[in-house]
Amino acid sequence: MSIASITASSRLASIVGPAHVVSDSPELGAYEIGGQRPSSAVRPGSAEEAGEIIRFAAAERLCVVPTGACSKLAMGMPPRQYDLALDLTRLDRVAAYDPGDLTLAVEPGIRLQNLAGVLAEHKQWLPLAVPYWDRSTAGGTIASGVDSPLRQMYGTARDYVLGLEFVTGDGIAAKSGGRVVKNVTGYDLHKLMIGALGTLGVITKINFRTFPVPISIRSFAANFDTAERALELRHGIARSPLTPMALEILSPGTAQLFSGDAAAKIVREALPRHLLSSAHWTVIAEFSGKDQVLDRCEREFGQLAEQCRCTGVSALSGDTLVGAAGRKREFVPIVLASSPAATIVKMSVLPTRMKELLAIAAKAAATNAIPWSAMARGSGVIYFALVPGEAGEEARRRVIQATDQIVPECASLGGNATIPWSPAEWKGALKVWGPEVAGLEQMRKLKNIFDPSGVLSPGRFIGGL
Amino acid sequence: MDSRLLHELRRVFGTEGVLHEPEDLLLYEYDGSVEVAGPDCVVFPRNTEDVVAIVKLANRYKTPLVGRGAGTGLSGGALARQGGIVAVFSRMNRILEVDPENQRATVQPGVVNQDLSVAAEHTGLYFAPDPSSQKACTIGGNVSENSGGPHTLAYGVTTQHVLGMTVVLPTAEVVRLGGSAVDRPGYDLTGLFVGSEGTLALVTEITVKLTRLPEAVKTLLAVYDTVDDATETVVEITRRGITPAACEMFDSWTIRAVEEYVHAGYPVGAAAVLLIDVDGLREEVEIAAADVAEVCRLHHASEVRVARDAAERDLLWKGRKNAFGAVGRISPTYYAMDGVIPRTKLPATLRRLAQIGEKYGFEIGNIFHAGDGNLHPLIPFNGRDRDEFRRAIAAGTEIIRCCIDMGGSITGEHGVGMEKDHLMPFLFSAADLALMTRVHDAFNPDGRLNPGKIFPSSKACGEIYARPASAVAVTSPKPA
């Protein structure tokens, strides 16, 4: 331990107390990003302490990465410099909950699972069915900007985060938005924080709009010989009056992936036998409502699937519904657990372009002899997983080649492509943030305003921000 | 104004593209609010290049520049507070694309909100944000103010429907933000620019989501003998997790004003009514309508009427959407407020508003988006009476203070504009405002674009209202 880091640790200890500073211990391994380990991790007990730590870090030019459960630190690029992990898990309180108004304020370190328990007492929930759900924190979920199958009905965090409190890179506490469900006062700075990977501020409080838990949920699946037919069902549902909560299209490759040991370890509930097959594309749609509504959804889903020449339709309920929904939610961790070389390209495109984009990606994978599987959402988002068996040099070369084909093709279809997850040591050679986007100069301006000395997660975000 | 600037503007836009005579400018001194501020000239761009040309000229002549749609705004957002050029987007009114398969449309900013829904109707789609002024207001204006409307209760405000925009920055750079696909990587610039009240850029093209028209709609009218029963109904509907498509409340004063105007069958003499839409699948609508009716009766509604057909439904909604106009027939000048409170605080807040009215000597009318706690108290006053005007403004400020005390906000959909800039410090700390100011200055460093909006000015409170009494007296009722 260097003299500088000893001094830093003692200063940090004076802010949060020695029990809440970790230095030079194996415990720091939990905070690793792409092989980089911070010299200390510090756990503030209040937003004020978080602010003081940031001010100290900015003065000392120490770079800070805010963390929650550390489940999504692998996303984006590793930081250029990483001195301090700002572990926010002690900030885990429900600050205010007004069930009658369906509004909630929480600290960032609260786990989604614990929060779900609090909300369930009032038959409410947050539609954040995000990967690593059982350990994710609210703050990490918002900062990483991961989406959820439930976006089909509820949208993304942008649609139900009402306001945020945060500490900027110069240690100043600020806020935007508010706690009421409708509000246009001031600039929506909180929208910038969503998905910014902690590069603009440290989130210290989140105001959510909550939702009533659906009365009852049923899920239906239909199998198809081709992606085209499966996507036709997606379009048919969009044209119909049906409004599913979730709508995913799974490639044949997910059959093996979802029935494997890795999946079983992550999602306890079993997947119904024969739901997925390695010869078929499968559309799974979840619906909510009372029985007479769900009966109609079942009937019309079946009819639409027939019209698209499905090979079979099945209904899921109870544990099998949870088993399937859980695997869709945990698609990313299941893929990552199945191969040390797993690389996931996240693409988004207009729904009518999904067919073409999937074909392009599948061809790129096949040309480079990489097994793949894909999960597409009704909204036009596709998670395309390249899953080579091992992580050797040959696999690296092939994955780079395949993604170098996919990313620009996606852009030429008017879409977006990034590579949020891959082996850390490959990131430097991959187009992690996709092709250059318009507005990068404006984003840089914002980064300079929020984090003038560049101490917050430097380099993790798009364009090296 | 500088005659050379006028000359140059005319050279680019022709004489028919520039207005500068005082009588021509009169119209542009107003919007739907009680604010007044006149430009030195008005120009009518036809495309993005025209807007770039205007921005360059404004920069060269160091002249303020303000974008304007239909002028239906309710916070002075489109008024030239410091004079200068007003760029009116009414000639950029083309719907560039409707893509039904992907539920997208791309429009120029001057497209009238309702025109997009009409254009998309044959595909079974519509543009969901529905401000009451939707027959006149433009989508560019909606984007600038992040407008709401009655049905945003279920469908969300403008920002939830905007995916991408082309903007002209104050440097005259053209930037494309977002796109037609979801989840553009990078900071959510679209989210920042929507609702920035024309202070960060001029918008020249907008890509929006279109929403599928519901299969079924039912409109209920619940009639009450007390305001408390109506507000308690709203609290209970929210608490039970029922989300109607819209849930509007009128008090006795506005019921009378509306009914005398539209003759829709509103019960004159009732203390309050709730106008509630439920929509979705036929089966869902049956269930939701029954649930809503049950809650209304539980809270002593003397009558729960269900509109028999589309004609009756449209007539009831016509009453709601033309309410501000109806009020204008009774009191040509009134102050239309906009505040938000947590829905659980509705009964207490409405009681407090009545007390505030009494204190200042006004009968305050209420017609508002009860379902999301977005209040629109209307303070009728005599515009020729300077003292009465001052009292109306004082009452308005107290109402907004009350919203803040209840844990709410100072604007739910009208924007801060030049109406509420001085109230911003009640809601935001100096640090919050300093950060927002830095964002403003990064994009609009000379403050040339829409100056004097959102941020509290250094001027003394009240100064902004010091204007000739005659100026307010000519305010005419507008759709709002």
Task: Please characterize this protein's 3D structure.
The complex is a heterodimer of chains A (465) and B (480). Chain A has 465 residues and is α+β, with helices and mostly antiparallel strands. Chain A has 16 helices and 19 strands. Chain A has an 8-stranded antiparallel sheet with strand order 15-12-14-13-17-18-16-19, sandwiched between helices. Chain A has a 5-stranded antiparallel sheet with strand order 5-6-10-8-9. Chain A has a 4-stranded mixed sheet with strand order 1-2-4-3, covered by helices on one side. In chain A, α8 (227-239) packs across α11 (291-307). With 480 residues, chain B is α+β, with helices and mostly antiparallel strands. Chain B has helices spanning 3-13, 22-25, 48-60, 113-120, 139-145, 152-155, 189-193, 227-239, 252-262, 282-298, 310-321, 323-330, 346-360, 386-405, 424-427, 430-443, 469-473, and strands at residues 18-19, 41-43, 65-68, 85-88, 95-99, 104-107, 125-126, 162-168, 174-178, 202-209, 211-212, 216-224, 246-251, 272-280, 303-306, 334-336, 339-340, 365-368, 374-375, 377-380. The longest helix of chain B is centred in the C-terminal third of the chain and has 20 residues, at 386-405. The radius of gyration of chain B is 22 Å and the shape is globular. Residues 459-480 of chain B have low confidence and may be disordered.
Question: Helical amount among residues of chain A, as a percent range?
Answer: 25-40%
The computed structural class of chain B is alpha+beta
**Gap between N and C termini of chain B, in Å?**
32 Å
Give the largest interface pair and sizes.
A-B, 80 and 84 residues
Q: What percent of residues of chain A are in strands?
A: 15-25%
In spatial order, strands of the major sheet of chain B run 15-12-14-13-18-20-16
Apparent shape of chain B:
globular
User: Strand order across the biggest sheet of chain A?
Assistant: 15-12-14-13-17-18-16-19
Radius of gyration of chain A: 22 Å
Proportion of residues in β-strands of chain B: 15-25%
Quickly give the structural class of chain A.
alpha+beta
Radius of gyration of chain B: 22 Å
Oligomer: heterodimer
Topology, number of strands of chain B: 20
Largest sheet of chain B: 7 strands, antiparallel
**Topology, number of strands of chain A:** 19
